[in-house]
């Protein structure tokens, strides 16, 4: 079943030198699956995620045939209606928990605020629900964490709190923008496993935005590879290592590997033609 | 004689109850021309060792000697900076935003006491693969990879024997990372450099280094050769788990 259907999405920014096109005609669908979007910095992957939630501020321009969430076009909604969508139906986890948590508010109050905003319940119930959610993201002493301020938390803890906060209104879609890039490898696994379990249990759709090809191929079901604002290739995640496009191949070959020592790494030579080829459809 | 000798190194921050022991009893040696890696998670003390060597961490005890000369305190003389240079993690933060590439390099060369500055700036830019057209640009006109090349050129300006690399590619895209790592490999050969490199990325260390030390909570838990790393022969359980977590899934099946 299709949760989200994006057709011909463009994101443009007017600059003094003319219009800069960050995303150029991207189409894809998302079902109850884990969809990875990979690319280098500047490829438009984060902008795609933000455009879905209409988080691009003017003068930035978002244009599309439709961005349909279960049949409703999000671009046609008013700002007030859009607020109901954000958090309640589509949530987003950003890269660095340090910048997405309020530094002067206790963690517990922040999570409760997220829940109270979307549900007509009392404080006691919100509190119980928050504790339960913190336990669901494997936080051992949730009582203490509820009372703590964000600066008392490590990066991994912070990101788990963010995930707890995003999942508490029970959204249908979670957009995770580089959720583990600021974390150590061992913590990365923990956070991913938690996210994976929750997404599976609740039958959610996940858009996982990352620059890390290995991580995406291991963690997702399907992958879109973006370059210069377009999708250049799409494939099943476990087939990523058999990818055909020279850009994807170039990225894969530029990674150092422990099992294949080389004196020099392969360097990616960019072909200007890659940016000109129309976007590949990312429909399942 | 070893190029870098570290023995019983302790580094701490703060005093009394606030004291944090960042490095506890670290010991290793690096031979001339060798490339040695320090790996571990954030907070394991790997960058602190580099900072202690360069005098950026004032409180330390133990023994650090560079090319046979023991260091004391946190003041380093001019000869030290001719011999040892450092490249930092974030090329966006380590270059002065209002100094052009030319100013950055000329000033450094002047401090090292060179006369033929113009010719040297040209040569440094060629060495790091930037060329003349970048000479009068400002950092905001450069990409992350180009900035890191400028930072490397600045480190090479004093013709050092030892370069300390603190996560030189972790802020860069993988394709740019490959370019910078290749550049570092070439420079090491051309200039007969000794590298001490810090990274959290085991494949990067495996690619660049001959030997490495695994750090956890301020202590070195294991020193091993890269061959052992590639053969997955880590002895300490922590190194094994780190290695487990770093193996690319595709390489396991392929």
What would your notes on this structure say?
The complex is a heterodimer of chains A (284) and B (254). By secondary structure, chain A is of the alpha/beta class. Chain A contains 11 helices and 11 strands. Chain A has 2 domains: 175 residues, 3-Layer(aba) Sandwich (Rossmann fold); 75 residues, no CATH class. Chain A has a 6-stranded mixed β-sheet, sandwiched between helices. The longest helix of chain A has 18 residues. Chain A is globular, with a radius of gyration of 20 Å. With 254 residues, chain B is α/β, with parallel strands linked by helices. Chain B has one domain: P-loop containing nucleotide triphosphate hydrolases (Rossmann fold), CATH 3.40.50. Chain B is built from 10 helices and 10 strands. In chain B, the strands form 2 sheets. In chain B, strands 6-7-8-3-9-10 form a 6-stranded mixed β-sheet, with helices on both faces. Chain B has a 4-stranded antiparallel β-sheet with strand order 2-1-4-5, covered by helices on one side. In chain B, helix 3 packs across helix 4 and helix 5 runs parallel beside helix 6. Chain B is globular. The interface between A and B is medium-sized, with 33 and 33 residues. Chain A: It holds the Pfam family oligo_HPY. Chain A: It is a peripheral membrane protein. Chain A: Belongs to the ABC transporter superfamily.
Task: Supply database-style keywords.
heterodimer; A: 284 residues; alpha/beta; Rossmann fold; 2 domains; 6-stranded mixed beta sheet; 5-stranded antiparallel beta sheet; 11 helices; 36% helix; B: 254 residues; 4-stranded antiparallel beta sheet; 10 strands; 37% helix
């Amino acid at each position: 079943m299709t949760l989200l259907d994006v057709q011909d999405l463009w994101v443009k920014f007017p600059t003094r030198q003319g219009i800069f096109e960050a995303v150029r005609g991207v189409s894809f669908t998302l079902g109850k699956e884990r969809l990875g979007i990979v690319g280098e910095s500047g490829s438009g992957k984060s902008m795609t995620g933000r455009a879905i939630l209409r988080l691009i501020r003017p003068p930035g321009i978002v244009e599309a045939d439709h961005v349909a969430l279960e049949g409703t076009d999000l671009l046609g909604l008013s700002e007030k209606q859009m607020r109901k969508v954000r958090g309640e139906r589509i949530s987003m986890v950003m890269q660095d928990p340090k910048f997405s948590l309020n530094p002067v508010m206790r963690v517990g109050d922040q999570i409760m605020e997220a829940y109270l905003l979307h549900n007509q319940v009392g404080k006691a119930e919100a509190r119980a629900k928050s504790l339960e959610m913190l336990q669901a993201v494997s936080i051992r002493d949730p009582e203490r964490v509820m009372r703590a301020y964000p600066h008392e938390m490590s990066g991994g803890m912070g990101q788990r709190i963010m995930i707890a906060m995003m999942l508490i209104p029970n959204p249908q879609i979670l957009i995770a923008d580089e959720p583990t890039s600021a974390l150590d490898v061992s913590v990365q696994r923990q956070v991913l496993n938690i996210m994976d379990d929750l997404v599976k249990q609740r039958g959610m759709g996940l858009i996982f935005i990352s620059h890390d090809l290995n991580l995406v191929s291991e963690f997702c079901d399907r992958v879109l590879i973006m370059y210069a604002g377009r999708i250049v290739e799409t494939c099943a995640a476990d087939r990523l290592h058999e990818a055909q496009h020279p850009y994807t191949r170039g990225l894969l070959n530029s990674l150092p590997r422990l099992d294949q020592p080389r004196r020099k790494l392969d360097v990616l030579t960019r072909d200007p033609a890659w940016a000109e080829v129309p976007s590949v459809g990312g429909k399942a | 004689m070893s190029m870098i000798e570290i023995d019983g190194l302790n580094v701490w921050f703060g005093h009394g109850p606030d004291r944090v022991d960042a490095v506890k009893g670290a010991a290793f040696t690096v031979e001339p021309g060798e490339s040695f890696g320090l790996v571990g998670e954030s907070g394991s003390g790997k960058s602190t060792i580099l900072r202690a060597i360069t005098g950026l961490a004032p409180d330390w005890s133990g023994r650090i000697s560079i090319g046979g000369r023991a260091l004391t305190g946190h003041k380093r003389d001019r000869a030290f900076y001719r011999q040892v240079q450092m490249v930092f993690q974030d090329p966006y933060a380590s270059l002065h935003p209002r100094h052009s590439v030319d100013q950055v390099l000329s000033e450094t060369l002047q401090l090292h006491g060179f006369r033929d500055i113009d010719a040297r700036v040209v040569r440094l830019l060629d060495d790091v693969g930037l060329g003349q057209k970048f000479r009068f640009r400002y950092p905001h006109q450069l990409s992350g990879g180009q900035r890191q090349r400028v930072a490397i050129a600045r480190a090479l300006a004093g013709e050092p024997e030892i370069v300390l690399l603190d996560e030189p590619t972790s802020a860069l895209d993988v394709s740019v990372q490959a370019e910078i790592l290749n550049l570092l490999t070439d420079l090491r050969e051309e200039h007969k450099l000794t590298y001490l490199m810090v990274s959290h990325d085991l494949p990067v260390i495996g690619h660049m280094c001959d030997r490495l030390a695994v750090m956890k909570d301020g202590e070195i838990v294991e020193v091993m050769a890269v061959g052992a790393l590639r053969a997955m022969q880590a002895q300490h359980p922590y190194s094994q788990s780190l290695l487990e977590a770093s193996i690319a899934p595709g390489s396991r099946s392929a």
